[in-house]
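User: Abasic site processing protein, Phaeobacter piscinae:
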Amino acid sequence: MCNLYANTTAVEAMRRLFDIRPGLDRLGNAPPRFSIHPNYSAPVVRRTETGDRELIEMNWGFLTPNFSKRDGSPIKPRAWNNARDDKLMHSGLWKSSFLERRCLVPASSYNETKGRKPAVHYWFGLATDDPDARPPFAIAGLWRIERADLCSEDETGLRHTMVTTEANDLVRPIHAKGRMPVILEPQDYETWLTGPTEKARALLKPFSSAKMRVIKHGLDEKRDLPPGLGGELA
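Assistant: Predicted structure for Abasic site processing protein:
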């Protein structure tokens, strides 16, 4: 599963890519995000009640109550940051959001881990002729308004998760369980956001290996940084 991704795309570039009208960008001067972990805040594109696209911050991971195995007392909620494509219509955690609240999760790369002691962390992105470029893309996502008692005090209550599917030939050798995020083509953004259920389900498939690349990989100490040194983009 994906537990770490990056979005280093400038806000203005995201406005253009996702066709965000003036006044519907809620990010302000948000900085690049080199390491987005579960529970962290990140940009998301969703439809408003009037049908316009909105660029807004949400925390990553749907929350569910969690209890101590020792005494049954409430502890930190679980954050479900990945939703399997084959469970969207069968799990109460995902179904209503899939039917009513689909979103786009902007990204420039995402991370997967292979092995232990040492673990090797691979960053995946879109193929490009420029080795230093990190072309933006969108991952199929879901969102919901979270229960207030599960959220921290500084949260808005808006939460997103990303949908995963079977891995393609590039990712499969790295991911032990053969999964990857659903990366969408730009022409499919509107279908994912507003299309009928069956058309949205048809988009849940591996992204072409030929359109992706491994940007860089490294050992444990690199996991929380962009690939390479701290100043390099993820």
